[in-house]
Amino acid sequence: YAIRPLLSVKYLLNRKDGESFVDEDTHETHMSGYSYLKTDSGYYIYENENYIPYGFSYNYYMSYDFCNGYNETSRPNLMLKAILLTDEQIEKYGHLMENIEYIPLAATLEEDTTTLSLSDEALEIDCKNLSTTSAYYFKKDNNGFTAKVERDSESLVFFSIPYDKGWSATVNGTETEIEKVNAGFMAVKVGAGNSEIRFTYMTPGLLNGIKITTVLVLVMTVVSY
């Protein structure tokens, strides 16, 4: 349930001739937080009410030791509360956020607050808090994507797009380091104010492959003469 908002999934498609997403007895969706939108092209379409757009930032971080103290099904819920960082990353970026380990266990559920509760109500609050920090502009193209964010202070901007060595990134035109966070996704650091983030993908080894191919073509051309 928590994985979908974490991955910025906005819609759920249910085939008309497939297993129903609606409980026949209660007439409610099998996962809370989804509302029927329309029927189109043989699918019932439901909208995720806890949708979080791309490019959001956290107020809290957590270590792998802390995260691994919870079972696997609970970890996506935790990632809606705090970004998962390695010890090295905590040394670099920990000052930008608070350590979630210090949140009181008995904290009450209130809007704009983060608790360690794993309830559906807490999930809704966590998603709403993250969505307020999302990029106000996001556009993808054939080579990657561009996002624009506004921040009051330095922060990490998280994108639920799988980390790969083929990605490179710039912030306001300056090359920046991409951090592998949340066990396999990407984040970059931005400063206070407005920032334009550009991610570009190039298949690893592609340039070397083109160079080698070009040399071989030239060699074969010379040999043929």
Q: Could you explain how this protein is built, in words?
A:
- The chain is 22% helix and 31% strand.
- The protein is globular and about 55 Å long.
- The chain has 225 residues and is α+β, with helices and mostly antiparallel strands.
Brief characterization of the structure:
The chain is built from 6 helices and 14 strands.
Helix-strand layout with pairing:
Elements: H1 3-6, E1 11-15, E2 34-40, E3 43-48, E4 60-62, H2 64-67, H3 75-78, E5 83-84, H4 87-93, E6 98-99, H5 120-131, E7 137-141, E8 144-151, E9 155-159, E10 167-171, E11 174-176, E12 179-181, E13 185-190, E14 193-201, H6 206-224
What order do the helices and strands follow? HEEEEHHEHEHEEEEEEEEH
Cα-to-Cα separation, first versus last residue: 65 Å
Overall pLDDT confidence: 91
Global Rg? 22 Å
| Uncertain ranges | none
From the spread of the alpha carbons, the general shape counts as: globular
Strand content: 25-35%
Described by strand count, sense and barrel closure, the largest sheet is: 5 strands, antiparallel
Helix/strand class: alpha+beta
- Order of strands, widest sheet: 7-8-14-10-11
SS element count, helices:
6
Q: Write down how many β-strands occur, each being a DSSP E stretch of 2 or more residues.
A: 14
Annotation keywords:
225 residues; alpha+beta; five-stranded antiparallel sheet; three-stranded antiparallel sheet; 6 helices; 31% strand
